[in-house]
Automatic annotation (TrEMBL):
This is [LysW]-lysine hydrolase. It comes from Thermus aquaticus (strain ATCC BAA-2747 / Y51MC23). Binds 2 Zn(2+) or Co(2+) ions per subunit. Zn(2+) 2 binds at D91, E125, H326. NCBIfam families: dapE-lys-deAc, PRK04443.1.
Amino acid sequence: MSMGILDPVKFLQGALEIPSPSGEERLLAEYLAEGMERLGMRAFVDEADNARGQVGHGPLQVVLLGHIDTVPGVIPVRLIEGKLFGRGAVDAKGPFVAMIFAAAGLSERALSRLTVHLVGATEEEVPSSKGARFVTGRLKPDYVVIGEPSGWEGITLGYKGRLLVRVRREKDHFHSAHHEPNAAEELISYFVAIKAWAEAMNVGQRPFDQVQYTLRDFQVHPAELKQVAEMFLDLRLPPRLPPEEAIRHLTAYAPPTLELEFFGREVPYLGPKDTPLTRALRQGIRKAGGRPVFKLKTGTSDMNVLAPHWPVPMVAYGPGDSALDHTPHEHLEVEEFLKSITALREALEALAKMGAKG
């Protein structure tokens, strides 16, 4: 299948020029679907506004899924000294466009052994993960690659889980001379207890196995008859602490006067190092001139959403430095982008040659 009719860098640049904050991905999805059609794929935009493509007619089902939404914020799209700047260049339009061109360059032999499903998923940057959840019951993959920045030589095996917590305290107002903790002070005491619990859990653990906690918001509402204080916590959870277990701990530390609300639950995931998929990716990276390295990420991705539904070999892969995610300096090295296309295409070829299911 020829890629000559579209230039990968120019196509990615066009994708970056279409704003796609979470919930507003439709125009970008249409652009990506049109591009996939021009590359000879069967392509469409589905009911969740995902950009969908399919190529090949073989028995082995491979899903390449990357998210096409971004966090808010505009970065002028420009190509300077081999660096392509723009919101989503790294997280994660760049990885998904690399997937498109990797699949578009497959040999006829690979296409006879694989059916590759491309999913440009919506709303990954918000707790809904609308796009990934939409396809869970509609595709039945044997292998899954999530399009996230790992660096073109990196293979990500796992992501931490997540739990968001809203804590509220409401109590009758009283004079400040009265010797009693106010609503805000009660929340502060709870936060100190949670901080001590997390730090005790983290003793002797590597970063991936630690509990991370962030106080995202703290508000004290003007008091008239009632005092009201609220705080918002973001916890990143290691594989040994799934969300339900974390909830048990957080509830145990909370006095009955506090109202706790839990949401944004994402199960941690850590996949094995040795599967046909990881072997194929290592081969592909080496063929493209790289030295493969395994990585673990302390954030979350659509991998957390999909792993409970698709118990098959799964990794995350894509060009870019994840340290640039969400920053005003987000950019992708063009050379790395092109190498990732070659590496992923070679990995798919290797997977087709193996012909084995996970």
